[in-house]
Amino acid sequence: MIENLSLFALVAVLGGLGAALRYFFSLWQGKLPWGILMANILAATVATAALFAFGDSLASKVVVVGFAGGLSTFSSVSAQNFDFFTGGKINRTLVNAMLQIGLPILATIAVAVVYLAGIIRPIG
Amino acid sequence: MSSAPGERQPGDLRMSAALVFAGGALGSVLRLAMSEATPNTFLSLAVVNLLGSLALGVVNSHSFFAKPSRQLVWGAGFCGGFTTMSGLSLLALEQFGVNNIWPAFIGFSALAGVLFYWLGKILGKRLSR
Known about the structure:
Chain A has 124 residues and is mainly α. Chain A has 5 helices and no strands.
């Protein structure tokens, strides 16, 4: 019960921090929403690293669900793709969708490979 | 995406970040509750990402959320914090070689997310009247 309570409290604080950090990233825009893309890639990188470093623990759950979950966003990618698509920018819609989803997955794979190859040892 | 701001002051930026923090904290806790409530990662990810996209559509079209401070709390904060992209990346890692439906699931999510956002916009406009 108490552990559950601290999990929820820590996820709230780190989720809020992740979201606030994403807000600063989101100010970087161009032909594509580069800032949000960076936030999504960073979130996947941090989440995967936490999973390998801390295993199945409170710490990893707080970082994965709280910080990385708050930092990354799916809803704003849906909104971007809707706006691009309805604005007739079909290529931009497809490129944005592929980058926003594909690059975080590649980041996750890269971190997993680094850990599984033993380049970085898990803590503890 | 944010509506054209005038000159941005450092104080405004701090205030904006605080508003996003509040909404993001709430969204993240609800997402945690969702994942604790269901052991099925596919289901909980689909629910948060599609409901979150729907909610953002409402936020971006309903007159109640036209105020910039409400946009920050409920749009960038709540909907952004409630939905997750890193969760999809970890799903790929977790399901790799286990259940190879994950690429189709992620593709479906991307498409359905846009549709749910669109539905949210329609809903928000209807409810505004």
